[in-house]
Amino acid sequence: QVQLVESGGGSVQSGGSLRLSCAASTYTASSGCMGWFRQAPGKEREEIAAIASYGRTRYADSVKGRFTISRDNAKNTLYLQMNSLKPEDTAMYYCAAENVYIKCWIQRDFGYWGQGTQVTVSS
Predict the structure, then answer these.
(1) Which of 35, 92, 109, 112 is most deeply packed, by most CB within 10 A?
(2) Which residues of the chain register pLDDT less than 50?
(3) How many CB atoms lie within 10 A of CB 9?
(4) Model pLDDT for residues 26-49, shown as the tens digit of each residue
């Protein structure tokens, strides 16, 4: 059973930065992908960043150039560095993982999810 635990959320003013962490137990990044999603009230959940096991990354246009996804395999931890935060970045942020590359990278279908961490950006 893969467990993902996010941390690092909080409240910040517009233009500020936060770093989210996702500790993964019993999951190894030897295949598949890990990613970050977010869901704002009244909106659908969206993928904002993902990283494949071999290191390739992708970002949603809304965060490109401001957010950076990275992974520490030794610590089994996924990170999301968020800079130049905007009020529209306010959402619940979720960590996700998937062992099957085609599912996560092509179909954007992740099988394991964390409980989420709230990010609130005030203007």
Answers:
(1) 35
(2) none
(3) 19
(4) 766 677 899 999 999 999 999 999
